[in-house]
């Protein structure tokens, strides 16, 4: 189940070495308290990340989530609701968008059986936050899904963040027919950062620790799993 995690899934020799260094620094501090020796460092974890706040649902336990503030796709009275937490720069989210969502849309959303919602889990650095803010600004001009699709269809490698600037994203918005002055002002001021932070925090409460993470009628599905797995869960919920 490919998923972009907030925490590496395995312990490496590097982790062991770092742990030994931390213990050594602690012992040195006890032996030589007057030296004021400190072991410092930096982190690339987004400021919104709150370690230890991710809730881990028990196997088979359903989670309670809201649909969020962004417009949904499909029938609002559908029996099944799907809420996806994703990062626009996550390659596994792009895989889900490419390999799963077209069939999901054709078989369930367009037929009125499923309503689908997107929520932000922008955790892959500052460029992810810029992309999320840009999508919010597109939503302000009723272009959220157009912009959502563009970001995934044109997603560069994860190491390439050159597209995620105010000027470049404003140009893209203009090509979609949006008011560029309005969009640029919205994006440059991080007008909707509060929405992005709220999505992230509520995702953690639901057990989201990486992307993509999808909740189907309360059933948490982690990773870019095959369409057949989504179909099985959806059909089970429809049969109830």
Please write out the topology.
Elements: E1 4-5, H1 13-31, E2 73-74, E3 80-86, H2 91-99, H3 101-109, E4 114-120, H4 126-140, H5 144-153, H6 166-175, H7 180-188, H8 193-205, E5 210-211, E6 213-216, E7 219-222, H9 227-238
Parallel strand pairs: 3-4
Antiparallel strand pairs: 1-5, 2-4, 3-6, 6-7
Helix pairs in contact: 4-5, 4-6, 4-7, 6-7
Distance between the termini: 26 Å
Proportion of residues in β-strands: 5-15%
**Helix percentage range:** 40-55%
Uncertain segments = 7-52
CATH architecture descriptor name of the domain at 73-238:
3-Layer(aba) Sandwich
Find the count of extended strands (DSSP E, 2+ residues).
Answer: 7
Q: What structural class is derived from the secondary structure elements?
A: alpha+beta
Assign the CATH superfamily of the domain at 73-238: Glutaredoxin
Number of helix segments? 9
Characterize the overall form: globular
Provide the spatial order of strands within the biggest beta sheet.
2-4-3-6-7
**CA gyration radius, whole angstroms:** 20 Å
Element-by-element helix/strand order = EHEEHHEHHHHHEEEH
């Amino acid at each position: 189940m490919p998923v972009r995690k907030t925490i590496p899934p395995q312990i490496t020799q590097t982790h062991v070495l770092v742990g030994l260094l931390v213990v050594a620094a602690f012992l040195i501090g006890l032996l030589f308290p007057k030296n004021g020796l400190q072991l410092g460092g930096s982190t690339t974890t987004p400021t919104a990340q709150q370690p230890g706040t991710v809730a881990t649902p028990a196997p088979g336990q359903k989670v309670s989530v809201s649909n969020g503030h962004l417009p949904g796709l499909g029938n609002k009275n559908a029996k099944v609701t799907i809420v996806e937490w994703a990062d626009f720069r996550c390659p596994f989210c792009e895989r889900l968008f490419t390999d799963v969502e077209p069939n999901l849309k054709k078989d369930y959303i367009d037929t009125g059986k499923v309503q689908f919602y997107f929520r932000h889990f922008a955790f892959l650095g500052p460029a992810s936050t810029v992309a999320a803010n840009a999508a919010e600004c597109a939503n302000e001009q009723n272009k959220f899904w157009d912009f959502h699709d563009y970001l995934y269809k044109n997603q560069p490698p994860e190491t390439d963040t050159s597209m995620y600037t105010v000027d470049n994203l404003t140009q893209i918005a203009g090509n979609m027919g949006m008011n560029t002055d309005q969009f640029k002002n919205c994006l440059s001021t991080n007008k909707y950062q509060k929405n992005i932070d709220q999505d992230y925090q509520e995702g953690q409460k639901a057990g989201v620790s990486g992307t993509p993470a999808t909740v189907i009628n309360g059933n948490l599905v982690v990773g870019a799993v095959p369409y057949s797995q989504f179909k099985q869960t959806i059909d089970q919920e429809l049969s109830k």
